[in-house]
């Protein structure tokens, strides 16, 4: 599950300006077949959104070319799918 709490009209939302092309998403993931999930926070931004952010400095997150809901969500899904470990706790620790 992917949620962006600060966006009311997702997936139809578009950022009003470059400074808004950086959002935090909550991602709920869990082991296959298990109804429980762990929640993670991930920042997603465009290169322009990174340049325009208010607080400069080191940034960790995902960068997308365009801030479009389908692209953002597929990028988050790719990140989650790339996390591998023999045990669930290993995935959580990544």
What is the element layout, followed by pairings?
Elements lengths: L1 E2 L18 E8 L8 E8 L1 H6 L9 E2 L5 H14 L5 H6 L1
Parallel strand pairs: 3-4
Antiparallel strand pairs: 1-2, 2-3
Describe, in plain words, how this protein is organized in 3D.
By secondary structure, the protein is of the alpha+beta class. Helices cover 28% and strands 21% of the residues. It has three helices and four strands, in the order βββαβαα. The protein has a four-stranded mixed β-sheet with strand order 1-2-3-4.
Shape: globular
Structural class: alpha+beta
Order of helices and strands: EEEHEHH
Round the Cα radius of gyration to an integer and report it. Answer: 14 Å
Low-confidence stretches: none
Q: What is the multimeric organization of the chains shown?
A: single chain
Provide a short characterization of the protein structure.
The protein has 94 residues and is an alpha+beta fold.
Kindly list the characteristics that best describe this protein:
globular; single chain; four-stranded mixed β-sheet; alpha+beta; 3 helices; 4 strands
